[in-house]
Amino acid sequence: MNAMATGPAPLLAVTDLRKYFPITGGVLQRRVATVQAVDDISFTVGRGETLGIVGESGCGKSTTARLLVQLLKPDSGSIVFDGMLVGENGDISTRDLRRNVQMVFQDSYSSLNPRLPIEDTIAFGPSVHGVPVAQAKQRARDILAKVGLDPNQFIRRYPHELSGGQRQRINIARALALEPRLVVLDEPVSALDKSVEAQVLNLLVDLKSDLDLTYVFISHDLNVVQYLSDRVLVMYLGKAVEIGPVEAIYGRPQHPYTRALLSAMPSMDPDRRLEQAPITGDPPNPINPPSGCRFRTRCPHAEDVCARIEPRLAGAPEDGAHRIACHMLIAGSGHSAAPAQGA
Amino acid sequence: MTTETAPHAATARATANEPLVRVEDLRVTFTSRDATVNAVNGVNFTLDQGEVLCILGESGSGKSVTLRALMRLLPPRRSRLGGKVMIGGRDVMAMNDDQLADLRGADVAMIFQEPMTAFDPVYTIGQQITETITRHDGVSQSAARARALELLELVQIPSPERRLKSYPHEMSGGMRQRAMIALALSCRPSLLLADEPTTALDATVQIQILLLLRKLRRELGMAVLFVTHDVGVAVEIADRIAVMYAGRFVETGPVATLIREPEHPYTRGLLSSTVHGAMRGRRLEAIGGSPPNLTALPPGCSFAPRCRYAEPACDAAVPAEVWINPQHMARCIRVAPGQAASGGFTLRKP
């Protein structure tokens, strides 16, 4: 995370990434509306770093994950992996990208082939990428041991014979079998029970240091993101509203949405229960997001300027690595709480 | 709605000392050709009027089955119920279908995790609430509609007149959950059963629903049995917490006691493996292994195979309920009546 500003180039650099989904209707299947799932998102991920992405449902975090591994093609914007442009006219083929960037999905069952034994599931990727079958199978056994499952006991089993925690370990093993450098984890522990979640989180921490991995970790669970991440990106309705080091986001949140999200977390203390909801209502529909700042409809500080102009991410005064998209922090924005221009 | 707090039939029959709900040795097994699943294996508890008891447990612990058994919502041909369930002084196990239909919705109501599947998609919210009111209270359509409107206001749904005419799919997740709470409250139940009602909601919406339930409980004085897997949610809403594991309550107590001085090794493990602030960089104390197979439960303590304090005596028989004090119970052989074992755990294990 310190390597960000001055050190070597980041492993992953995403600039103005955008993905809209058309909604078609009527007999002619014409486009009737557009879901602005990811709208001009930019961020970087340094080598060996964990970037956490948090947000509520519909904020575009899973779409971002799918764009990163090229399961979806972006409408515009660029993804640069290790200095190489990703995409059809890029410097790195999708095949080479997939060897370097792997993904773990939330639903551990639907992401495994029910007809393949565990050994074949894990060895499939390496053998597609040219590793001889015998060697790929040996790698499957090695990696199984690494994720804490006894190879002799598990290689012949099928996904339905495993518990949720075991299946998620298999998914992690499959992702790691290609020896990737970046792993995109999309809600990997959300479907697991708490006692099993802790096991998998410990495993992710161990694997990262053993194998020199870089993570993009996506979750709606703020506690888990805080536990694992070096830097955190907060998304709301397809937009990045705040990004920065984990200590800054959790210790000095600046955007009203980040503050609301953090203060909506249960207190874990029966004597300090929440007495008031930090914000009311549900997140709006991403089909017709509000103009200007997308959070303004739920924001207690919204003013005219928030409806007219979309705020850009700008560095916090005391910490340039901590960037916030809010008119209250942009000098001369026109918001009554904004600092004076030139101050 | 808020002004009409006349005691309902069920509560009226309950005597002053009798709790609203008394469950004794509740057992539920599911049978199929291949196996018998022991989902609930001897659950005892009482619930007073106006009290909130949270059943905290992981998937497969039997918490939802316990809830459904109280209303006898389980499929009769595939499930076998045992034990005693008394609600408002009436024996639920002895009721026939007509009596059950009167009980459900009127005295006992339930809200679910996914309101989209709990509502009928082809009727409006207003029609569904009105139907419930006319069925149980026998009032006219217009009176029922007026109360439906009042209910939507009570659960803080914006522009309630318009929302009465909405279909479930036209509402957001948080709004649907509010509408389901309105439906559940439509006949002023004395007991509300809540099955993970906030699990599918976003964090900022979840806290709104929890605050709403707390307010309604205060204003309407109903008892709530709330099932969740999330310790944080339980701490926000519960008066008492019951920790469930493999179909048994392994520990019950007031919320503060259970969070600060848990006695059962499973409760301790659950709390220490729950990630919360200021744990960064530290290794999580996970509970090893996974929950037992409910088709073949061990003869002794079902947590023993995962318990770091297990000893041979744990496998001999299911540990009895030990009351550390009149409010705090744990099913563990290391806990002695009248005294906490907190020191004992570390002393006896090298």
Structural class of chain A: alpha/beta
**Could you tell me the strand content of chain B as a percent range?**
15-25%
Give the second-level CATH assignment, the architecture of the domain at 9-245 in chain B.
3-Layer(aba) Sandwich
What is the terminal separation of chain A in angstroms?
29 Å
Q: What is the top-level CATH class of chain A?
A: Alpha Beta
- CATH fold annotation of chain A: Rossmann fold
Bin the helical content of chain B: 25-40%
Number of strands of chain A: 12
Number of structurally distinct domains of chain A: 1
> What's the main sheet of chain A like?
8 strands, mixed
What percent of residues of chain A adopt helix (DSSP H or I)? 25-40%
Largest beta-sheet characterization of chain B = 8 strands, mixed
Quaternary organisation of the protein chains: heterodimer
With helices defined by DSSP (H or I, 4 residues minimum), what is the helix count of chain A?
A: 11
Order of helices and strands of chain B: HEEEHEEHEHHHHHEHEHEEHHEEH
Low-confidence stretches of chain A: 1-5
Structural class of chain B: alpha/beta
Please write the CATH class name of the domain at 9-245 in chain B.
Answer: Alpha Beta
Features:
heterodimer, A: about 350 residues, alpha/beta, Rossmann fold, eight-stranded mixed beta sheet, 11 helices, 12 strands, about 30% helix, globular, B: about 350 residues, four-stranded antiparallel beta sheet, about 20% strand, disordered N terminus
